[in-house]
Design brief:
mainly alpha, 12 helices
């Protein structure tokens, strides 16, 4: 008996790293597959509603694809508008940034007693033609990869919704033996993930609007761009909100004089993050949707390392999925408890008496 336990433990030690290795090297196919699953789950209620009205399945899929393409088009238009805004005022901004950063570096040089800039142009130190060409090539590669990922994701969404890939049958055939257990678990996964994505999208949109309005009222350049950045970064749990505040604070240092105006602006964007991310999001998501802080941080680091930025965005939905699966079996309930925790816990909770 002990030999069997030892063998199982050794196999587990070998298999787990192998699984993570495969997840990393197969990211080109697994990232669109996982993202498409979450998107398909969002559209399942709409598909059921259309089915009840006896609309053919292929027409329902076309409707979903049109909604998906429409969302991408709107996102593209917002990015185009933000880019136009940046291009129109980039010369004035770079001039202001040059003066502000040069003065800051001179102050640091005087304090440390060392000379760093020879020509008085800080931007020339960090920017040259070779670096620009490399960055441009990297940007083109990133755009190409992103488009490929989006097309593959859309393809997989169609397969999920057309039931060529059936998540329920996969659960029934691989993880669960009892039909009622797989149905119950599938519905819980669907409901929890739909709730999470809808609330996260709503809160991120409010955060982006709040950042944009703050930039507008404090005369900080590119309010549309910063609103979009805050909206996107807010999908990265915990880390995204901190990064968006830090980035905008650094940018505002260039735009605003270091007076009470800059301080009030930093307090405003911090308050926006606290109100929407720290108060409204926990209220909207509900008490049953609780994940330990340590579990969130480990999940972010793990999936960020494996899949990069897409991994950071999908880390919490994946953790929720695993937590629900672990709850179904006595042998793995310990892992579910560790993910939930009773102390140091972020609770996405409705305030109930």
């Amino acid at each position: 008996m002990n030999d069997r336990k030892t063998t199982n433990a050794l196999l587990l030690i070998i298999v787990i790293p192998l699984i993570f290795y495969l997840l990393k090297i197969l990211d080109f196919i697994l990232i669109p597959l996982a993202a498409s699953l979450f998107i398909a789950l969002l559209f399942l209620p709409l598909m059921r509603w259309l089915t009840k009205r006896k609309i053919p399945n292929f027409i329902s899929i076309i409707i979903v694809l049109l909604i998906f393409i429409g969302a991408l088009f709107i996102g593209g238009e917002i990015i185009k508008l933000a880019s136009k805004e940046i291009i129109q005022t980039q010369d004035a901004f770079f001039t202001k940034a040059q003066i502000k950063l040069t003065n800051l570096v001179y102050s640091v040089e005087d304090f440390l007693g060392m000379k760093y800039m020879d020509d008085g142009n800080l931007l020339n130190i960090f920017m040259n033609k070779d670096d620009f060409s490399k960055n441009f090539g990297s940007t083109l590669g990133l755009i190409s990869n992103t488009i490929s990922m989006l097309l593959m994701t859309a393809f997989f969404v169609v397969l999920w919704l057309a039931e060529s890939l059936n998540f329920y049958k996969v659960l029934s055939g691989t993880i669960f033996k009892l039909k009622y257990a797989s149905v119950k678990t599938f519905m819980k996964i669907e409901n929890d993930l739909i709730t999470f994505v809808k609330v996260k999208f709503f809160v991120s949109a409010l955060t982006g609007i709040g950042f944009g309005l703050a930039c507008y009222f404090f005369n900080v350049s590119f309010p549309i761009f910063w609103g979009l950045v805050a909206f996107l970064l807010n999908f990265v749990q915990m880390i995204g909100s901190v990064v968006s505040v830090l980035l905008l604070t650094i940018f505002a240092f260039v735009e605003l004089d270091p007076t009470s105006t800059l301080l009030f602006f930093i307090l405003t964007i911090t308050l926006v993050q606290v109100v929407f991310g720290g108060v409204l999001e926990p209220i909207f998501l509900g008490k049953s949707f609780s994940i330990n802080v340590i579990a969130i941080l480990v999940s972010l680091m793990l999936w960020g390392f494996i899949w990069g930025v897409p991994g950071l965005i999908m880390s919490i939905p994946i953790t929720v999925f695993l937590k629900i699966i672990f709850e179904q079996f006595p042998q793995t309930k310990l892992f579910s408890t560790l993910l939930s925790g009773n102390s140091g816990q972020i609770q996405f909770s409705k305030l109930k008496k």
